[in-house]
């Protein structure tokens, strides 16, 4: 099943609606795949483990980093992009969403802008295959007609994969991602980097920052990082991330969006000094 998760109504324009695959369906598919494989190879072992972990845990460091569900800041980032798309011209831009998970911010741009190239990265391959790619398809080529939400046909989805040619998908740790991205010249780098709820872990913040620093086009590239001010129990958050940026003295940081909630949420805009 798919569900509608974001609706933005701007002026007299058509409302913008985003869809995502239901988490229960993703878990069902993981379980079904394991049953079909019927052998303990490396993949089936890790998928069973992910299934087990996601019942009670949001994140298990180094194994599952939370990409199966949609986190709050991801919707903040979609809202911000939808408001700003009037004044920021994303058309023709090269975009990277880091730690994408359900990837709604990148998908929002992919489905509303022209001649755009959006690449997606997630720690877990399962997340890319079972959540990110299906979500891209149901918001583009398989988009429900007139809000009619129905079952997602995996076979039909597989036939549509060649329609994803404007996107690349990267799995694994941020450590070493810069090499894998193959960005030899400034021209090949990204105009915009998006990332939501990815600065919760103090150990990972420098790795994420290095990818941003190396993959962003100089001098006009911009990164939008949506996050909570503090992640209780894990230690990361806006403050630790900003301290690192300040020490490095390469980027200017501006808070461009704030949401007051039980834990305050912000979007940081990073641009080269
Ligand atoms: C809490 S989830 C957020 C998912 C999505 N951006 C959202 O807001 O709904 C954190 C994401 O960060 C990524 N991540 C965390 N640590 C990582 C690491 N060390 N290397 C690569 N990716 C990592 C994972 O891909 C994971 O999906």
From TrEMBL:
Its EC number is 2.1.1.85. GO terms for biological process: methylation. Keywords: Cytoplasm, Methyltransferase, Nucleus, S-adenosyl-L-methionine, Transferase. SUPFAM superfamilies: S-adenosyl-L-methionine-dependent methyltransferases. Coiled coil: none annotated. It is an enzyme of class 2 (transferase). GO terms for cellular component: cytoplasm; nucleus. This is protein-histidine N-methyltransferase. The lineage of its organism: Eukaryota, Fungi, Fungi incertae sedis, Mucoromycota, Glomeromycotina. It is found in: Cytoplasm; Nucleus. Signal peptide: none annotated. Belongs to the methyltransferase superfamily. METTL18 family. GO terms for molecular function: protein-L-histidine N-tele-methyltransferase activity. It comes from Gigaspora rosea. InterPro entries: Methyltransf_16 (IPR019410), SAM-dependent_MTases_sf (IPR029063).
């Amino acid at each position: 099943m798919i569900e509608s998760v974001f609706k933005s109504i701007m002026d007299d324009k058509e409302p913008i609606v985003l869809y995502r695959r239901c988490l229960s369906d993703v878990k069902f598919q993981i379980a079904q795949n394991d049953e079909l494989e019927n052998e303990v190879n490396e993949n089936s072992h890790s998928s069973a483990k992910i299934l087990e972990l996601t019942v009670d845990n949001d994140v298990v460091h180094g194994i599952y980093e939370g990409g199966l569900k949609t986190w709050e800041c991801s919707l903040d980032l979609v809202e911000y992009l939808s408001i700003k798309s009037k004044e920021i011209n994303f058309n023709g831009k090269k975009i990277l969403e880091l730690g994408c998970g359900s990837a709604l911010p990148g998908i929002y741009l992919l489905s509303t802008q022209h001649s755009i190239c959006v690449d997606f990265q997630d720690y877990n391959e399962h997340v890319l295959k079972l959540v990110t790619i299906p979500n891209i398809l149901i918001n583009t080529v398989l988009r429900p007609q007139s809000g009619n939400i129905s079952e997602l046909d995996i076979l039909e989805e597989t036939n549509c994969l060649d329609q994803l040619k404007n996107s690349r998908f990267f799995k694994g740790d941020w450590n070493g991602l810069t090499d894998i991205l193959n960005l030899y010249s400034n021209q090949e780098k990204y105009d915009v980097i998006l990332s939501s709820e990815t600065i919760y872990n103090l150990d990972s913040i420098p790795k994420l920052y290095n990818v941003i620093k190396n993959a962003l086009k100089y001098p006009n590239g911009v990164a939008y990082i949506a996050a909570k001010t503090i992640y209780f129990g894990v230690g990361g958050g806006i403050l630790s991330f900003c301290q690192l940026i300040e020490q490095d003295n390469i980027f200017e940081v501006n808070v461009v969006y704030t949401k007051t909630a039980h834990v305050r949420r912000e979007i940081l805009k990073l641009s080269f000094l």
